[in-house]
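Notebook, student rotation project (T.W.).
Task set for the rotation: take a protein with a known small-molecule partner, predict the structure of the complex, and write up what can be learned from the model alone. Partner molecule chosen: pyridoxal-5'-phosphate. Sequence and SMILES entered below by T.W., checked by me.
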Amino acid sequence: MADESLYQEIILDHYRNPHHKGLRDPYDVEVHHVNPTCGDEVTLRVRVADGVVSDVSYDGQGCSISQASTSVMTDLVIGRAVDEAMKTSEAFLALMQSRGQLEPDEDVLEDGIAFAGVSRYPARVKCALLGWMAWKDATAQAVAASSGGAA
Amino acid sequence: MADESLYQEIILDHYRNPHHKGLRDPYDVEVHHVNPTCGDEVTLRVRVADGVVSDVSYDGQGCSISQASTSVMTDLVIGRAVDEAMKTSEAFLALMQSRGQLEPDEDVLEDGIAFAGVSRYPARVKCALLGWMAWKDATAQAVAASSGGAA
Amino acid sequence: MTALVDAGLAPYDVEVVRADFPVLARTVSGHPLVYLDNASSSQKPRQVLDAEREFVEQHYSNVHRGVHTLSQEATDAYEAARTTVATFLGASDPHEVVFTKNATEAYNLVAYSFGNAAAGSRFSVGPGDEVCVTEMEHHSNLVPWQMLCERTGATLRWIPLTDDGRLDLTDLDTLVNERTKVLAFVHVSNILGTENPVDVLVARAREVGAFTLLDGAQSAPHQVVDVQRLGVDFFVLTGHKMLAPSGVGVLWGRKELLDAMPPFLGGGSMIEVVQMSGSTYAPAPERFEAGTPVISQAVALAAACDYLSALGLDRVAAHEQALTGRLLDGLHALDGVSVIGPATTESRGAAVSFAIEGVHPHDIGQSLDELGIAVRVGHHCAAPVCRRYGVPATTRASSYLYNTAGEVDALLEGIATVQRFWRR
Amino acid sequence: MTALVDAGLAPYDVEVVRADFPVLARTVSGHPLVYLDNASSSQKPRQVLDAEREFVEQHYSNVHRGVHTLSQEATDAYEAARTTVATFLGASDPHEVVFTKNATEAYNLVAYSFGNAAAGSRFSVGPGDEVCVTEMEHHSNLVPWQMLCERTGATLRWIPLTDDGRLDLTDLDTLVNERTKVLAFVHVSNILGTENPVDVLVARAREVGAFTLLDGAQSAPHQVVDVQRLGVDFFVLTGHKMLAPSGVGVLWGRKELLDAMPPFLGGGSMIEVVQMSGSTYAPAPERFEAGTPVISQAVALAAACDYLSALGLDRVAAHEQALTGRLLDGLHALDGVSVIGPATTESRGAAVSFAIEGVHPHDIGQSLDELGIAVRVGHHCAAPVCRRYGVPATTRASSYLYNTAGEVDALLEGIATVQRFWRR
Ligand SMILES: Cc1ncc(COP(=O)(O)O)c(C=O)c1O
Ligand SMILES: Cc1ncc(COP(=O)(O)O)c(C=O)c1O
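Predicted structure of the complex:
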């Protein structure tokens, strides 16, 4: 029954076996984001060390799309330089806003390319972005705090 | 060009040569009524003596319908017992609200029957009623004042 | 059915009804469309669209202020629509019907009008006063009262829910008390399906002199409503849920109240005398219909009322109850599926919310859409209800006069398919 | 015309345009309909009605909250309509377009939102603050500000009129001053036809930091509007005067303002998180679109914008200006007829008010109707203007893109006939 373009196997895999799930210590910042239209929520922790996203952990409830995209996100940002990870996040955002018009770059988005089809379902785009937006928020706070501390 | 049913000769006659027009003394009550949708207005005086409408005088500006119907009204109420005049006024009101469905009684309404066609033009009904409503208001006040005095 | 035949009525022929709705012939994802999102908005029959179009193509003009023929015809059609709606609601006077753009505007109209009342007026709301709603209100009959209380310093109270999706009236006498100015509550819940005991609530409100407003957005499309028998002060409906286009709703209110309430929206047509330094206002309904009204939408709503009346709302209600019973029975029989709201058709409408263990409502909705089945997922503008029952959202199927037993079965099969897919 | 041909455009063929409007084939009182009541409301072309119907028959559902196919299609159509309107107005961001039920709701939206602002907020209005309008405002852009001032204790001021129907700007700097919170004024007057000098008024408002709201109800249908070039903060239009159905209007506002302003109507879709104890609100435009929006009406309005754009508003404006000039010349040539408003086509729109000596406007309108000619008589929701010029009411003829020189001539002849009849 699956509409191939939306529920890709990659998405279902991440949904059933999410990566890096569960809240862990140590962390710099914890945020809680909610998608008010569907009640999905995520609590997410970020640790940034030496300009690198050293860990991201999370917990929450949500649909397959939001859960899988958060899982994919952790794969794409953990261990990366903050700048680089932010670029990846921009690329994912652009893909989600493309309404099916953008060809995703597998080198940049890896498993994230499975979400290309989601962009054709505007009602689901917010689901796919929930974890990413939480990460971006938390990371920006962590960076601000550490640079504030350095100043 | 005249639509026979609206601009009857009787109406045009009263419009061009209004009866009892001009404000006169003596009077018991003066009222000022306005039709807010078109700006028509009438100032009207009533004198009631021994239960009889002994005089009605008026001045104002308005369309042919409102001017003519006020003129016809004065013919129908001056010299009549208040009760009787009020009944005539009810009959005219009923005719105006009939949307062309009522056959007017010439014995009661005399020249007023010329307004039967107006009832089919809801936008003009208020015009035809302006003078009547002013008269009713003033007369009710005059009666109340005199009975108040008698009590 | 037997009762209908006994009453001399032709049996309800749903296929004849369906033929009036062009969209029902559509396919979605390669399947015939099964439209079960009626609590959100209904489809429109040709008769309604034709009536609106004939009006717009031949008799359209602005209303109320003109002497030319088209403006008379348009005014007549608009006022005739008011009379039709009044009759549909059992109102004694067409002037008790105010056309709004939707139900939401109607609640806001009352809340803002009360908020505009001078201190000491019978309508004024201030510190120490209370407004009472229920925990199952649609946001549209909740947020306007929250905002009113915030503006005026009044206190908002609410009647809580029982575990089986009904109002918990244990503390009714405390919640609705001498300080209560308004008791605003939903007739039939759009998320739980619950039909509330109007008589009990109105009786209590009367004891304490509170105004009552009944949200009929989910009742008027589905059952005979008689505002006088209901005994409320205000009743609200919205056209798009009852075969009419979007863009039209109705506030019914007792004439005596509407004429005395302060105005809400200011502008053309609601005035009497306008001077730069201040204005006076027309009586109801004009007082509450500022600006060019929703003319052709009102005409269409009247056509929708005529359509429903011709079909017979009693027959429609019986048809829907049969479908709702079938759906509830089917859901109860499925493992891992739970109904949120009353379990039987007793005092309930056609909206049925449910949860499937282990599958998120978004995924249920999307997967059903791939089978051509349109249901709504989310909080259905009743987030407090989701919170109350500990779910982030629900999946809601809601049938209407054109749905069939076969469609209910398709949904039940669809749910089984969803379960198989998502439990792999 | 030469200019248009030079620009490579086909000459404006009014007969082709007329064929799109079914009602124009009607007769009234046995005469071909001459519809000159466009300032009150316009007729609707087939293209607009067809677009709305196709949408309702094939893609209709409630918007914004659903994952099923129809709700996606409906949401796409509704949001595409927003984008079309934004482009039509030269707005940089579709989120600056708020759909309302008419223009009147839009003024009230801004006035109530400001009234809801906490003291000290940049939007709040209170004692000592001023709102400035003009003496030629439509009641809809006057009464909401009167009501706001009454609620908040602010003071209403107004720019007076000159004898020839223009704003008297002598005291502009006093009337719009450091205390002025809002300057709300009409772009093109519906009763006088006057087009106001937006640049002068906006410049003064900016000097003192007042918000500007431009009433474009009579400009948007007739000329190219570019909200960014106009430099105002808010711009309002109403669909029914520009080929769209009744039931839809637009508030355009700078995004930064709309996102910061307090909400007006409370209800579904305008919220973020709703708890019984209080709610938070969505950003614009959702914040100001509570409840089910005017979905199919917005789709129809977009089709109307497309129709106007395809025809070319510059060409429409040139066509109308020719008609207006012809009418003004004709009226000036008639004995006993006087124009109320600017005497030439210089900075003026297509609405022309006039008086016939010795004949009341009601009788003029009725007599013209007997010749099939539809004009509007009354105060045109601008009673202070009538008072200013010492008339109880006016007769107003207003042409639009489908009117012809022949129709203007028919009106002029009609006026002569009216004079003969009423002077007997
Ligand atoms: C100049 C002007 N402003 C505002 C309005 C109000 O528009 P609406 O009645 O559609 O709200 C009108 C028309 O009635 C108008 O001509
Ligand atoms: C119970 C209930 N009340 C109010 C509303 C609001 O109706 P509208 O969105 O048409 O204003 C709805 C539907 O959305 C509803 O289901």
